[in-house]
Amino acid sequence: MVTETWTPEETYALGRRLGEAAKPSSVYCLNGDLGVGKTVFTQGFADGLGVEGPVDSPTFTIVKQYDDGRMPFYHFDVYRIGDVSEMDEIGYEDCFYGDGVSLVEWGGLIEEILPEDVITVKIEKDLEKGFDYRRITVEGLE
Questions:
Q1: What is the pTM of this model?
Q2: Could you give all domains of the chain from N- to C-terminal order, each with its CATH number?
Q3: Are 18 and 103 in contact (CB under 8 A)?
């Protein structure tokens, strides 16, 4: 599925729709350059899960857990992971294979431990189409 968004609100709304449809034990990999709108998308995704608190990037903590939605939400940012073994230390398996949903920013850095049925979301900019234009490709949905 490919979606074009023209405003941050549209990117948020797409994230929200995917969050509303998310199922337990789903893992979403969110890829895109710095500043492309991953946080806006994630905030919408969290909203779709019913998360009420503020959602921001867990860049320095690797993972943030939110328990106030319809299921646990694990938001990973693995950009600063030095070695994939660091994921063992934070108990990623409980998140990926438990009753919640995981969203992993920069998932390509930990490909070897991702489930086979991962859902990938790629956000791309095209400044020729406008500052807020985004092309969002989602693969792996049923």
A1: 0.92
A2: 2-139 (3.40.50.300)
A3: no
